[in-house]
Specification:
This protein is about 60% helix and about 5% strand. It contains 22 helices and 5 strands. A 3-stranded antiparallel beta sheet has the order 1-5-4, with no helix packed on it. A two-stranded antiparallel sheet has the order 2-3. Helix 2 crosses helix 13 and helix 8 packs antiparallel against helix 15.
Length: about 625
């Protein structure tokens, strides 16, 4: 019996082996960073709420309610928003626990690196880079058409803001979009507190516009009657299936609250404020969405809603044409807040990946004065501005959802791993190998002495498993961990099969039903076993303790995985082809750079039970 030691890049597998992909880092926020590597801890719970609400409520809600009500839900749009909000809250619960335990920059990338492994973490980080770049560019391109309303049309915009077509190339450039991206980039470079104040201001204006819609629309409805609810075909014209189809569409209106977790390292009290920020932000968004939808589908019958400007046209039908300026102002501020929410997380993702050696150290530099990753922010803003200026990225908007849904899925998987098979080995610097050897030798000597003393006291009785001796994981515990790991894998495979078969309308009915049954059986078997076995005791001491705990494990994370997998598969073949090209590029970058520059390359993995002893024998820090 001795200290568990593992070389070859941290885990078995050798230089080119599979082990590189499953090596895991420890919760680095447990150990203090040097001052020049530390982000400023200035954010309060109010700042987090503003970031969460601003990143989530985009201009889409001003358009989406018309399309979804006309095509899917009818007057039951409010229920669709409620269902979607509940589905989004499943991911929010998972994020809240991981953000409390691992309050470092990097969000889902950081959590998956700790719980799942380097390979998955790299793909998540790479997908999030794509999401935030395209998302920010798409939002910026949508601002100038709304802004043009205040000037009397797009042809009345000042020349330096108006869109122009480059003759011969057919490219429509948007200077307004690029200018706004540079302004937001400048704000983010000044400091996180200053940018959060700006986010709070524009978010407040947007929320006020939505409150105006609710109050003014309610007044009109009570005065003139709720024509949208006085229909012969009832509240569910498309049935319950239509409501669920509508909730799948409006689910994407809740994407954005995860931006809060990207600022975890800059929060004053992350254990308290992060769960509150995530929960309150998501609740505010859900309540506002539901109240707006109640009013609009009540003022105008769902089949008469304008699919492009449902709110403005609803007010105009009652003679309130002037309200269009307030509504458009809300849409513009919503887009500005979403733009800030899109650009804010990406530099912190790049910084986290660079800290781990997977990207050049250039991206991990933190400005001494502003205490933000200025270089990463400038690079992010430059690329987003170039895309917004030169390209109409609306056709690529589906790619934004891939990064988010992948992140939501892996965060739920990480909760299962953390609860049932948390990492029992941590990486230490190769320079500590001497300390590992001395601790192992001392521990082995102590065990022999204890065994000899116990034999003299207890006679020939078997002393295996004696609490004084058994410092390593017991055989029963190893068996439990193995069972849990296999069943987590089993239910993930079942999730993929079930969601794929349920979405494959082109399959023969018999084959589709067979695959659905197979997936459901695998899913239920894995879920039942996890529900019956004990969770790992190490979960009580993993990372930072005393924060929020995700409820109803394993049921809640499994439901989260199933919902997000289904939505991922239904994004369409074209979207997946484009995303696959980006992911292949990411794999090549990892193979030729990230793998060989990883901070875990050559790390020695030791049992968590002996980490303190080993580090106590050396002045070196953990890897």
């Amino acid at each position: 019996m001795g200290v568990c030691l593992n070389m070859q890049n941290g885990v078995p597998g050798g230089k080119w082996g599979f082990g590189n992909l499953i090596r895991r880092k420890q919760v680095d926020s447990v150990h203090p960073r040097r001052e020049d590597h530390q982000l400023a801890k200035t954010l309060s719970v109010l700042d987090l709420i503003a970031i969460g609400v601003g990143s989530t409520i985009g201009a889409g809600v001003y358009i989406l309610i018309g399309t979804v009500a006309r095509e899917h839900t009818g007057p039951a749009l409010t229920i669709a928003f409620l269902i979607a909000g509940i589905a989004a809250s499943l991911s929010a619960f998972c994020y809240a626990e991981l953000a409390c335990r691992c309050p470092s920059a990097g969000s889902a990338y950081h959590y998956s690196y700790i719980c799942v492994g380097e390979g998955v973490a790299w793909l998540i980080g790479w997908a999030l880079i794509l999401e935030y770049t395209i998302g920010g560019s798409a939002v910026a391109r949508g601002i100038s058409p709304n802004l043009a309303l205040f000037f009397g049309g797009e042809d009345k915009l000042p020349a330096f803001l108006a869109r122009h077509t480059i003759s011969g190339l057919g490219i429509v450039v948007d200077p307004c979009a690029a200018l706004l991206v540079f302004i937001v980039t400048g704000l983010l470079c000044i400091g996180i507190k200053e940018s959060s104040v700006a986010q709070t201001i524009v978010t407040t204006v947007n929320v006020c516009a939505m409150i105006f819609i609710i109050i003014a629309g309610g007044y009109i409805g009570f005065k003139n009657g709720w024509a949208g609810y006085e229909l012969r075909n009832g509240y569910f014209p498309y049935g319950i299936n239509g409501v669920f189809a509508g909730s799948a569409t409006v689910f994407f209106s809740y994407i954005g609250f995860d931006s809060v977790t990207s600022t975890a390292e800059e929060v004053k009290n992350p254990q308290r404020d992060l769960p509150l920020g995530i929960g309150i932000a998501l609740s505010i968004c859900c309540i506002l969405y539901m109240l707006v939808s109640i009013v609009i589908v009540g003022l105008v019958p769902y089949y008469a809603l304008d699919p492009d400007t449902p709110i403005s046209s609803a007010f105009a039908s009652y003679g309130f044409e002037w309200a269009v300026y307030i509504i458009t102002g809300g849409a513009v501020t919503a887009l500005c807040a979403t733009l800030m929410g899109s650009i804010l997380p990406q530099p912190r993702i790049l910084m986290a990946m660079a800290r781990d050696g997977l990207l050049p150290s250039f991206f991990s530099d933190i400005n001494k004065h502003t205490q933000v990753p200025v270089k990463s922010t400038i690079v992010t803003g430059t690329f987003a501005a170039a895309l917004a200026f030169l390209m109409d990225v609306s056709q690529l908007s589906g790619m934004v959802s891939v990064g988010t849904l992948l992140a939501f899925t892996i965060v739920a998987v990480s909760i299962l791993v953390l609860r049932y098979v948390p990492p029992d080995k941590v990486p230490v610097s190769p320079s500590l190998q001497g300390s590992v050897g001395s601790v192992s030798l001392q521990f082995h000597t102590d065990i022999q002495e204890i065994e000899a003393n116990c034999q003299s006291l207890l006679g020939n009785r078997n002393i295996c498993g004696h609490p004084l001796i058994d410092k390593e994981i017991t055989h029963d515990e190893k068996k439990r961990r193995k069972i849990a790991a296999w069943n987590i894998t089993l239910l993930c495979i079942g999730n993929i099969i079930l969601a794929s078969a349920a979405s494959a309308n082109e399959l023969l009915s018999f084959l589709r039903i067979t695959l659905c049954c197979l997936g459901a059986i695998l899913l239920l078997c894995g879920l039942i076993v996890l529900a019956c076995i004990n969770q790992d005791n190490a979960r009580h001491t993993f990372g930072h303790t005393g924060g929020f705990l995700c409820p109803f494990v394993p049921f809640l994370p499994v439901a989260c995985i199933l919902i997000n997998t289904y939505l991922l598969i239904n994004l369409g073949t074209g979207t997946w082809i484009r995303v696959s090209i980006w992911l292949v590029i990411g794999v090549l970058v990892y193979i030729f750079y990230g793998r060989s520059h990883s901070s875990l390359r050559g790390a020695v993995y030791v049992s968590t039970a002996h980490t303190d002893e080993i580090c106590g024998n050396s002045s070196d820090h953990l890897a």
